Amino acid sequence: MRNAVMSLSRNTQADLLLVLVTLLAGAGWIFSKNAMAAFSPILFLSVRFLIASLFLGGMAATPLRKLNKEEFKKSALVGLVFGIAMTFWILGLFYGNHVGVGAFLTSLGAVLVPVVTLFFGEKASKSLWYSMPVVIAGLACLSLDSSFHFGWGELAFLTSAFLFALFFTLNSRYAASIPALPLTTIQMAITAIIAFTVSLFMEEWQWSFEWDSWGWIFASGIIATSGRFLFQTKAQGMAPASHAAIIMTLEPIWAALFASIWLGETMTGLQFVGCALIFSAMLINRWQVIAHLLKRKKPAING
Q1: Cα–Cα distance for residue pair 112/73, rounded to 1 Å
Q2: pLDDT for 47-60, tens place per residue?
Q3: Residues near 16 by beta carbon (within 8 Å), at least 6 away in sequence
Q4: 302 three-class SS
Q5: Does 170 or 130 have the greater pLDDT score?
Q6: Whole-angstrom distance, CA of residue 126 vs CA of residue 14
Q7: What CA–CA distance (Å, rounded) separates 129 from 7?
Q8: Spatial contact of 14 and 237, defined as CB atoms under 8 Å apart
Q9: Contact predicate 286/242, CB 8 Å
Q10: 243-284 pLDDT, tens per residue?
Q11: Which sequence spans correspond to the domains of the chain?
Q12: In the chain, what percentage of residues exceed pLDDT 70?
């Protein structure tokens, strides 16, 4: 009985952390969109993650020294995948036409998690294949709308979705045995290095020293990066990847809501249907887990 209570407490804690993560992630879209008004996109990404790595590194000096060679290699691998994914994401945010739509395209990574696990020898559930036609229908609704243009930004979002699915799978596997603080710090540092290298060779640098811009940059680096990914790594080490992915699908909803408040964005009816279908696909993809959770939380009736 005691073990059951402790297990429930641990799952509840993971749930609350993941809800907080989705809120921070949704706000991060707005922070980044405003910060990029003063920075080249990939250069901004490198500055954002440099701030995050320095902020976390100040707390992670001792835990980092305790990592063995194998743990460091695993952390670096996750960081490499994450850094490439973030580079595609920031390009999508810079070139994309709609923050809310971009958030939903990126969140397809949650649907793709079971596909990625196939390469790790895990059997795909039937719900995965049920969700795929719904995803296609959702993308069709988005692309058929006259105000939606599938360009480089949207392609970058979809590429980042696949890479985020790979990152999510690897991170869940390694976070169970590697402490969250050093694991996240290494991810942030490698992402900063990758983004800086790509920016150095691929884009013309521009930046502004206006205080408003730096306010958005520090908010993005500390709140939406350090806090978000530290909490996410911690939560992923406490809950199954499939369960965590359900809650993470809240991110595009928060992003669309915040975009409507701060950026004045609106969505057409067909775009809304497309996003709703994509979100439904995520739920279909996880229907077994949802049914299990509802059954577990159903109060017992004493006869």
Answers
A1: 25
A2: 999 999 999 998 88
A3: none
A4: coil
A5: 170
A6: 26
A7: 31
A8: no
A9: yes
A10: 666 677 677 777 777 777 777 777 677 777 877 887 787 677
A11: 14-297
A12: 80
